[in-house]
């Protein structure tokens, strides 16, 4: 009996000892896991923490893979976009010469015929000239070596000094002077040396599309009614040439009207930016800076703005009155004011304010 009690008590003591040991090991295991999680949490925070981190930075980080895809697609399809612009523009010009111009010559009075011929060809020349110059002119690149030019920052990707108003283009993989944006329709960046060409192309292309839409509006309605009559029973008799004429006029009017709306809105946006002497990137930056200073009771002032008219004169390179004609209304290859790295008051602007790199 005693032996049984001793054996039973020994088994119970051994069981309790094992239970205590299991609890101790379980506790140590949980403690080690907790310490390991705390360690990795501390490492993550130490590597990623930044006092300037906000929701915009987090969103940009999350969308970084999408930006990478867009950059690479834009880089490789830039030539396709340029060919598309040339093909669409050429098709519209061809339809105008084959379909619209003969009707104008046959039905319009002489003064309107002269006006259409002069204005139409002038607008076409301005479109071709400015598109070629915008696509072929380098936007201006920041020097990759140390120079005496004052720099306001160091590019994190180029590891080179960045002058004022310079930004890195992830598609061109270079720092662009006074960068506005990368235009896939030009397969080129819009920067200091081709910004005027880009805006002039948008402006004259919008005028050209409006001109084609307005000039062909009556032809469009007649062609549209004719196409609708194709489905009547019995359908009217049209030759193959007449059907192609109807479809060509509808194609011309629809394409020109849609481009006029879309490109017109873009042109107005850039006209607003030029009036404020800002680029698309600077508009985003200045808007944030304006909100930040407003909270402190201060007012933001753009150091590169000289007033609405003077901003346009600087952008277009208008130094004298005759320049409004020979540099704005006629094709001109004159260079913009300055080198895009140092920004000073132009000599033809009467202002005591001096611009410093910011």
Explain what the structure shows.
By secondary structure, the protein is mainly alpha-helical. 63% of the residues lie in helices and 4% in strands. It contains ten helices and six strands. Strands 1-2 form a two-stranded antiparallel ribbon. A two-stranded antiparallel sheet has the order 3-4. Strands 5-6 form a two-stranded antiparallel ribbon. Helix 3 packs across helix 7 and helix 4 packs antiparallel against helix 5 (195-215). The longest helix is centred in the first third of the chain and has 47 residues, at 2-48. The radius of gyration is 34 Å and the shape is flat.
Write the layout of secondary structure elements.
Layout: H1 2-48, H2 55-62, H3 64-107, H4 110-136, E1 153-154, E2 161-162, E3 167-169, E4 174-176, E5 181-183, E6 188-190, H5 195-215, H6 217-228, H7 240-275, H8 280-295, H9 308-316, H10 323-329
């Amino acid at each position: 009996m005693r032996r049984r009690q001793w054996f039973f008590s020994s088994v119970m003591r051994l069981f309790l000892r094992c239970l205590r040991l299991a609890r101790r090991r379980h506790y140590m295991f949980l403690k080690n896991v907790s310490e390991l999680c705390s360690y990795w949490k501390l490492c993550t925070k130490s590597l990623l923490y930044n006092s300037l981190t906000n929701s915009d930075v987090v969103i940009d980080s999350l969308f970084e893979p999408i930006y990478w895809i867009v950059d690479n697609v834009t880089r490789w399809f830039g030539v396709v976009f340029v060919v598309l612009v040339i093909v669409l523009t050429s098709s519209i010009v061809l339809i105008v010469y084959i379909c619209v111009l003969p009707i104008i010559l046959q039905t319009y009075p002489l003064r309107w015929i002269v006006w259409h011929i002069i204005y139409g060809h002038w607008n076409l020349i301005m479109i071709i000239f400015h598109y070629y110059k915008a696509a072929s002119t380098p936007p201006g690149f920041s020097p990759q070596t140390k120079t005496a030019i004052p720099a306001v920052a160091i590019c994190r990707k180029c590891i080179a000094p960045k002058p004022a108003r310079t930004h890195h283009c992830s598609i061109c993989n270079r720092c662009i002077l006074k960068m506005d944006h990368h235009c896939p329709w030009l397969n080129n960046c819009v920067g200091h040396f081709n910004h005027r060409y880009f805006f002039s192309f948008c402006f004259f292309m919008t005028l050209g599309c409006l001109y084609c839409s307005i000039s062909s509006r009556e032809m469009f309605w007649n062609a549209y009614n004719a196409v609708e009559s194709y489905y009547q029973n019995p359908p009217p008799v049209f030759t193959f040439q007449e059907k192609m004429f109807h479809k060509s006029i509808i194609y011309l009017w629809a394409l020109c009207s849609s481009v006029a709306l879309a490109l017109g809105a873009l042109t107005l946006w850039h006209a607003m930016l030029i009036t404020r002497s800002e680029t698309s990137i600077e508009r985003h930056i200045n808007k944030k800076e304006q909100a930040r200073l407003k909270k402190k009771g201060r007012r933001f002032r753009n150091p590169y703005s000289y007033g609405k008219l003077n901003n346009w004169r600087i952008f277009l390179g208008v130094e004298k009155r005759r320049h409004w004609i020979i540099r704005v209304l006629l094709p001109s290859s004159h260079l913009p004011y300055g080198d895009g790295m140092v920004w000073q008051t132009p000599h033809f602007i009467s202002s005591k304010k001096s611009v410093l790199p910011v």
